[in-house]
């Protein structure tokens, strides 16, 4: 994990008058360091050993705060739990329909989709999101082994 990214993000919190607690910093560092797309419960499980008095509500409140400040993105998919993503660059997601695994896709060719959408519709576009759904390689292997 890049300490530069952590420090830059902590500065942004301070600029927004957000108090930096050890728990808040731990949640932030976890989100910056993970390539997974964890739920609030995943973050809680990862940090519970270091912070035994911390609640899932504390995690959720911090994730909400980070989302409101634009530091992380909340992704609501078909299951009941929101997943969270610390993203420095615009990217998309491939989602496994079986296990729910989420994988980042970096495809700069879609960067101009908002401009195209504006020209085609007249909308003042505020953002976009793309999801690709399918079956991940691990679930494909499991499915193949069940057939054999």
UniProtKB/TrEMBL annotation:
A UniProt-annotated Pfam family: FUR
Swiss-Prot/TrEMBL GO biological process terms: negative regulation of DNA-templated transcription; regulation of secondary metabolite biosynthetic process
Residues making up the signal peptide according to the UniProt record: none
Amino acids binding Fe cation: 128
CC cofactor: Mn(2+); Fe(2+); Zn(2+)
Binding site for Zn(2+): 96, 99, 136, 139
The keyword Manganese is annotated on this UniProt entry: yes
Keywords, in A-Z order: Cytoplasm, DNA-binding, Iron, Manganese, Metal-binding, Repressor, Transcription, Transcription regulation, Zinc
InterPro entries: FUR, Fur_C, WH-like_DNA-bd_sf, WH_DNA-bd_sf
Annotated GO MF terms: DNA-binding transcription factor activity; transcription cis-regulatory region binding; zinc ion binding
Top-rank taxon, per record: Bacteria
Subcellular compartments: Cytoplasm
GO cellular component, one term: cytoplasm
Textual note on the cofactor: Binds 1 Mn(2+) or Fe(2+) ion per subunit.
Family, as annotated: Belongs to the Fur family.
Protein name, as recorded: Peroxide operon regulator
Natural source organism: Latilactobacillus fuchuensis DSM 14340 = JCM 11249
